[in-house]
Design brief:
alpha/beta; 2 domains; Spore Coat Polysaccharide Biosynthesis Protein SpsA, Chain A; two-stranded antiparallel ribbon; 9 helices; five-stranded mixed beta barrel; about 30% helix
Length: about 260
């Protein structure tokens, strides 16, 4: 397959205004995310920018960005427009959707989402999940959960449902869904053409639109959840984690 990484980013964050341009060790956060995507060595990387300032920040470090409609209702709609503009001939048949607020993302997490999709010929989408170990996260509605029919070795499985509630009930692990997606190109085109589904609107999780339409989402299991930056406190945490002076484990990203 010929993948392309698309990173949607826009300035309209209510909890952290101007989030993509928030400074992390001398560079805007969106540049740090772009660097993590380059380090993953997957293929072409393009930032789907909602504003000129974001595109300019990427261009200044030699990256590729495209301006998209700032009014898009979701990051998926944003990357769909970006894909049509940067690859009108359809050379890329796998699309990797990375959130623009994951500056500490490890390449192995992205590769797990790619492997989840690539290994199943009739899969439409791929994503990743991590077992929840903190009891406080079980009832935390900002921690999205996924029910997975895991294969015997527990490395991959098929998504059955997504929820903000700790499902399934009973003894056993509950999994934190990490919002990194891979799509076959036809699946992305189909997804953005579908209207919002009843379960999607009820749970406020757009991936349920795909399940309700009968699309197959494969899940790769990972062992850590990447830090998503939505608040000033999380921004400070990202700065500490990317501090060039901090000792690092093998494969851990640096600023």
């Amino acid at each position: 397959m010929n993948p392309i990484v698309l990173i949607p980013a826009r300035m309209a964050s209510t909890r952290l205004p101007g989030k993509p341009l928030a400074e992390i060790h001398g560079e805007p956060m969106i540049v740090q995310v772009w660097r993590r995507a380059i380090e993953a060595d997957i293929g072409r990387v393009v930032v789907a920018a909602g504003e000129e300032a974001i595109a300019r920040a990427i261009a200044e470090v030699g990256g590729e960005a495209v301006i998209t409609d700032p009014a898009h209702p979701s990051g998926t709609d944003r990357i769909s427009e970006a894909l049509r503009r940067v690859d009108p001939d359809g050379a890329h048949d796998m699309i990797v959707n990375l959130q623009g607020d994951l500056p500490v993302l490890e390449p192995k997490t992205v590769r797990a989402a790619i492997d989840a999709l690539a290994r199943i010929g009739d899969a439409d989408m791929g994503t990743v999940a991590c077992a929840i170990h903190d009891p406080g996260d079980l009832m935390e509605t900002s921690v999205n959960k996924v029910v997975v029919a895991w294969e015997p070795d527990g490395r991959f499985g098929r998504a059955l449902y997504f929820s903000k509630w700790p499902v399934p009930w009973g003894e056993g692990e509950v999994f934190h869904h990490i919002g990194i997606y891979t799509y076959r190109r036809a699946a992305l085109d189909r997804f953005v053409a579908l209207p919002p589904s009843p379960l999607e609107k009820r749970e406020r999780l757009e991936q349920l639109r795909a399940l309700e339409a009968g699309m197959r989402i494969e899940v790769g299991r990972v062992e850590t959840v990447p830090l998503g930056v939505d608040t000033p406190a999380q921004l400070e945490q990202a700065r500490r984690l990317l501090d060039p002076a901090r000792p690092r484990s093998p494969g851990e990203p640096s600023a």
